[in-house]
Amino acid sequence: MARVEDFLADQVAAGGDGLAFTDSIGTRWTYADLDRASDALAETLKGAGVQANDRVLMLSENCASAIAVLFASWKLNAVAIPVNARQTRGEVQRILDHATPAVVLMTTAVSKDATAHAEHLAATEISGAFGTMHMAIRTSNPDPDLSDVAVLLYTTGTTGDPKGVMLTHGNMRFGGIASANLRQMTPADVIYGVLPLTHVFGLVSVVTAACYAGASVQQEARFSAAALYDAVMNGVTVLPAVPQMHALVMQYTKEQGLAKLNSPSLRYVSSGGAPLDPAWKRKAEAFYGLPLQNGFGMTETSSGASATKNALGSPDISVGPKTPGTEISIDDQAPGGNGAGTGEVLVRGPHVMKGYYRNPVETEKALDSDGWLRTGDLGKIDENGHLHILGRSKELIIHGGFNVYPPEVEAALNDHPQVIQSAVIGRMKDGDEEVLAFVQIAEGDTLDAEELRAFVKERLTGYKRPSQIVIATELPAAPTGKLLKHKLLDAFADRLS
Prior knowledge:
The protein is of the alpha/beta class. 30% of the residues lie in helices and 26% in strands. The chain has helices at 5-13, 31-47, 64-75, 89-99, 112-120, 169-183, 200-213, 225-232, 243-255, 278-288, 360-366, 406-414, 449-457, 488-491, and strands at residues 19-22, 28-30, 55-60, 79-84, 103-106, 124-128, 131-137, 149-154, 164-168, 190-193, 216-219, 238-241, 268-271, 292-298, 303-307, 327-331, 343-348, 355-356, 373-381, 387-392, 397-399, 402-404, 421-429, 432-440, 468-472.
């Protein structure tokens, strides 16, 4: 069986002297360096009792040492569990209880949050070619059902039973190769690695793709608009990001008195995680001077299932045609569907997860007997075979008997020149679901809610307009930059009537 670590072996066999990973604490590893670092760490893990089919949980933020943890785990035929160190103690404990890892590793050299977890877990410091980190030894508990699994990824914001997504080596290889081919990546490319590698986008579309192509990744532990700006002006060629990151770097550049980026090296920019609206897409493309590619994927599909390859100025705001080897179908009879081509997006292919670890009930809900994954996203396929995502089926708002898709309302709000980004949710009130909008503007800016209400009145029919608009300089977000809609009501409870 071909495995993800074979990509590293291929790079080493080719010479291994190409730059592989740099990070915010000054680490510079070639592929040969990464091979040596992961070998050294594998020996340390073996000495701690890690066996094949054990789980190795990593509490980390982006750094070279985290990459060593992944490959060391795979070299022992163990399963890596990347978890963002910024998760709370309770969130981490829930994953520990469910996954029962043999060891927990913490990238304490780059993360104060990892250091806090290390103290709580009474971890001891380890060091070597892999850098310095902390390790807490637990109990080896091999699970033969994981023999083909590379990683367990616990999805953001899950409630109820744990949902650890099992991605096999085949899933990750397929996703990494597809991402590298889509971007035409070569060893000359420098990819900006600010998307957390604890998230499927950063893990597969950045790290795995880079290892396949022999490209290098500039790892950043935390997002900063200033750091992103500096990176793309100084050698970065490929920028995969989420819309919130693009919005914030555009705002940062504007604050520097510049209208455009004018990067001498950047050649590819992509956006994922949310639909695009035409005005925002035109604004972003004018800023970068490059086409803004879009795509659709999720943890359960090893990242991408569809993607665009548009020319600069294309009016296409879809998430593109299906990627090679992928099948996409629409169930227009599912909740939120209209029976006429709009409905739940179904995906099938070599990148679809094995299932949810130790959770057969949720696995059966998500995967049917023919291998189709129910994504929970609402969408439609246009006459060109391009997929359009309308929103999450669970986020659909039914107001006055009409369907309101949050991305459409967000697009109207985002058209306002002072709006950086927005989030729209529904809330039950007096037997109906009202539309609530939360809008982010820059520090020092002033924007009146009534002014914004008048602005969207020209763009949205009555039942789609927000009944309340909250304006703030910051909205709750995950480490990926993705807005956390489930936290909005609590965060702004004092500003809602």
